[in-house]
Amino acid sequence: MIHSSAIVGAGAQIGANVEIGPHTILGDEVTVGDDTIIGANVVIEGEVQIGRGNRIGHGVLIGGEPQDVSFSAETRSRVEIGDRNLIREYCTIHRGTKDGSATTIGNENFLMTGAHIGHNCTVGNNVVIANNVLLAGYVSLANNAFIGGGTTLHQFTRVGRLVMVQGSSGFGKDLPPFTLAAERNAIFGLNVVGLRRGGFTAVQREEIKRAFKLLYLSGLNTKQALEKSRELKWTELGREFFEFVEEALKGRGVCPYHRSTE
Known about the structure:
Layout: E1 7-8, E2 13-14, E3 19-20, E4 25-26, E5 30-32, E6 37-38, E7 43-44, E8 47-50, E9 55-56, E10 61-64, E11 78-81, E12 86-87, E13 92-94, E14 102-105, E15 110-111, E16 116-117, E17 122-123, E18 128-129, E19 134-135, E20 140-141, E21 146-147, E22 152-153, E23 158-159, E24 164-165, E25 170-171, E26 179-182, E27 186-190, H1 192-197, H2 202-216, H3 222-229, H4 236-248
Helix pairs in contact: 2-3, 2-4
């Protein structure tokens, strides 16, 4: 059902069983998959592809121009959103800033009220982004990450799989997979509860602990720990951890471990 006050561009492609609320505007290059519900006063503009079964709350903006002073209005970029995402009211999702680029959101994510997804961000699957989280351009969130409310992530920051971030934190360095992060660029330990809830076995959790201890508790610096890891045997989980660290050293580096002074 499309409300009589909604404006849907002539070129927009709307799937079956889609609901579009009052005073919502969809541009000519918007594609909406089946069974998606779009609330009131939503604006979806530019080239935007939205999958099936999504719920988009009131006042959401998707596909707006990136907040990049070098952006040209002639740039052809887009937003790609997967299936079964819940995007609550007043979220903003900006399109890519370079020609042919995209901001991408996977499947079954939960974006709470007021979250901002900047240009060229990549959000995986089953990610929770709480109220008023701010993602600058090119931020990457891996599957099953949880970003607490009011947190800010600097451009190009990477967040690994199953990372849990405390609210009102800020980060400008990468967060390795499976960790707990809080405050300013600080790692506080492993997301043990998340690993158990995620079905990781005791053997798998032990491997992740071994990798964490080598990186943060061995007395080696990050490069030394990475070199030492190459001498040891790992399953795919240990390799995932240290491959993330190796990639981080090419960019912003990884957040350090917070050592209590008490």
